[in-house]
Amino acid sequence: MVWLACALANFALFHLVTVFPPSWVTLFANEAPVRFLIIEALGAVVGLLAVMASGLTASAAGPWASRPC
Description:
Number of helices: 3
Structural class: mainly alpha
Strand content: under 5%
Order of helices and strands: HHH
């Protein structure tokens, strides 16, 4: 049953991140949707770079650095 909740949460998060913001900007904001999509793409690049930096930091610290026990 937990897998079902995880699947629904994953779908809801995906919808909130990908579908809702562009539709809201198109309907209610006074700016072009293309500009908003460029901002989202830049945010995705920043997130990807942060994930890669996190992996490099974790590799440099070693496998036991973040474990409490």
